[in-house]
Amino acid sequence: MNCAVGLAEWRLPASGAASVRAAAEAGADGVQLDLGGPGRGPWLDAPGRTDAVRAAADATGVRLLAVAGNHLNDVGLTSAAARPVLVRLLDTAVALGVPLAFVPSFRRSAIDGPDAFAATAATLRWAAAEAEARGLLLGSENVLPCGKARELARRVASPAFRLVLDCYNPVKAGLRPDCLAACCGDLLADQVHLKDGPPDTGASPPLGTGTAGLDATLGALRRVPVRALVLENDYRDGDRARLAADLAWARRHAPTLSGTPR
Fold it and tell me: Where does the signal peptide begin and end (predicted)?
């Protein structure tokens, strides 16, 4: 299977079925969707919305890659409000027929000390069991150094658990994503977020021109099965030329990756 090039719905000026059509118009192979929630747009599992997304995917040929629970950054992954959101996330992933649901650990979900680490591991252990029961993979996107990331996976202790690699967030945390790819490759989800940084006057720099060191990370990922490179630069301003340039950059590099899922 070739490595696909996809888009992240939450970085587009459209959502739901409209984001699938926007991905098709841009020439992307697939799209990662967001569960939505207060401040993040309509819930993806609202009546008729999931069916509309599937219909758009069938009509355009755009692959539905994953569902992200970005709302958990607002409520906190280890809070009492998180588990109902996680259940909705997993059930929506099943309804859409995607293989991966993932949760970020930033802002109110940040893993910023031993207590947060232990609580996050416990929540992810429960969620991974729920994902496995549904035939899904559960991903965690975080900025833990490799040793702590491996410890997190050890504590979760589930064959359904994966780490979602972002090519720039670790740089902001003082880490090297190429090193993370090299030492945690066996734990990575086969969908990788591709972005560069830091933002300049509100817009993400074109892929390959920022400080993420993308060439080194993609080089390390050649030894890891990667099914999709998902562009996560910010395209919400509707700049189609910048999106097209980034898609072309990603397509030049995608053939160097395996694309064979685990």
Answer: none
